[in-house]
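Notes from hallway chat w/ T.B., transcribed later so I don't forget. T.B. wanted the structure written out for a chain they're using in a teaching module, and asked if we could keep both sequence and structure tokens in one place. Agreed to drop them here.
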Amino acid sequence: MLENLDNWGRFVSLPSLETLKEMTHLLDGDLKIGKQHFEIPLTRFNNLIASIGVDAHRFIDTFQMVQGNVPGSVEVLQGGEEEQRQRISTSPNAYALPIIDAGKSIFEEKAGQLLVPDRIRVNTAHVVSLFSNMPVISNIFYAVRLKDENERRLKALCLWLNITWGILTILGSREETHGGFVRIKMSQWRLLPVLDIDSLSKAKIKALAAVFDEFKNKEPTRIPDQYGLHGEYDKIRIDLDLAFLKALDIHVKESDLIPFYKEIGASMGQWMGD
């Protein structure tokens, strides 16, 4: 409990004891797949990031949405509807005009390409984190900048936040509002255990970025359905997880993942009442 003072909710984040045991292993850097154990480097997100965007209130206080690219406006990602959470790549979809003197400098300081959500409706989201083709800010997502930033490192982290083990750590750190609707505040993101890209070789970062590029335009089903909650396991989910593991020189088979997916799907069904 002392090691999890930031969030005791991890102990009850999902109703399956088996899944919680898997998460406990994971938080210790032990990726357990069946009877196999693999060490992966984890660190607090805060150790990697230089800034983490603006929250919804500051966005509203700083910017006003406008129609079209009017002089002085900036490109933003507005909203978080299901269609914006269907794949891990995204691009700006709106314009906003700074309404305070510091607005332009706030955008220049906080805009980023790696986006993590303030709120997630798990039963309609298909992915969690997004990667924008250009720096943006958002009224729903936090734009993250890294201390040592380049496109490959950003893609590697975005990939981690969308593979099964990344999703589990996010669900374990959530603030639940109602059923499948959860919130993760800036402070919770900062404390989140993530893949320690600082400890990975350039070759592994390159391999992870290549996996991101391979899957960036693919559209998996809704997150619970990826784990067989309403039928078959999602092939994109399986292939994405296997490709991530292979990039880290972890070699397992699809059949090794299915029992784990079954536990996750059942847990999500119990949690969200489906």
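Follow-up for T.B.: The chain has ten helices and 15 strands. Might be a good example for the class.
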